Amino acid sequence: MSLGDGSARGEWWLRYAAPQAFFPLAGRLIPYFAILAVVLALGGLYLGFFVAPTDFQQGEAYRIIFLHVPAAWMSMFLYVVMALWGVLGFVLNTRLSGMMASAIAPTGALFTFIALWSGALWGKPTWGTWWVWDARLTSELILLFLYVGFIALKASIDDPRRADRAGAVLALVGVVNVPIIYFSVQWWNTLHQGASVSLTRSPSMATTMLWGMLLMALAAWMYSIAVCLARVRVIIREREREMAWMQELGQ
Amino acid sequence: MNWGSLQAFLDMGGYGLYVWGSYGVAALCIAIELIALKARARRLGARMTESAS
Lengths: 251, 53
Known about the structure:
The complex is a heterodimer of chains A (251) and B (53). The longest helix of chain A has 34 residues, at 207-240. The radius of gyration of chain A is 20 Å and the shape is globular. Chain A has one domain. Chain A contains ten helices and no strands. With 251 residues, chain A is an all-alpha fold. Chain B has one domain (13-52). Chain B has helices at residues 6-11, 16-52. Classes of the chains: A mainly alpha (251), B mainly alpha (53). The A-B interface holds A 49-50, 52-54, 59-61, 63-64, 67-68, 71, 106-107, 110, 113-114, 117-118, 121-122, 124-125, 223, 227, 230-231, 234, 237-238, 241, 251 and B 1-3, 9, 12-15, 17-19, 21-23, 25-26, 29-30, 33-34, 37, 40-41, 44, 48, 51.
């Protein structure tokens, strides 16, 4: 399939699958997502620390939720997006797909680490332990290893297109872990509490708490988009600096 | 408003270490990610001017 034909037929979105078209677009979008991330995070932190009431069971320790839950959501979501870019790379054979997957991995690993770290610091005062080898915690740790493995695998292969394909296979195989993380609290007996927010029933928490958490989750989205776009621009420059369009751009 | 004083805010009802330990390390991680990305872009810029000259 030729991408040039696609844009000629008016499939405008396919045009952006080409790095030379995507590069300036990403550059223009980054400031908006960055500003949104800061504003949403400030709003979420304000609600979380100054408006949401003290939890009657956990006291103030529960305020870790405004960091922990959005980070955990993001860690799973980014992995799925990374795997989807991998599949897209296989199907369309576009250069950009593998670069997008590479750009997402470090941010996914970051959110996974934050989820694990804040979970440990939440577990200690509420469960009495930093860590237990139960299903939810273990599968989230495996997610961290998958991200790190993905980054290491790609770094170990010199040819970028081959690295993209190998990374896509790893990302795809590992994606089975995501539903395991999500449903682990239902499938196994675990110390970890069940979902506080679900699509099928009303949330089991105060409205202000819920809004604080949702704002923080949106902030995490905006941050991820901004930083991944910035990283994919660096990756595009690294890989395509010898190409004519880059030389013309003077980047 | 939940806090009578700055001290009460920092103390977090006795959970200050856990709460601020979470948010502090998260902020540090984000700072490291942004600095690392900046450094990667800068290294690239240096390499490009090298090859151009």
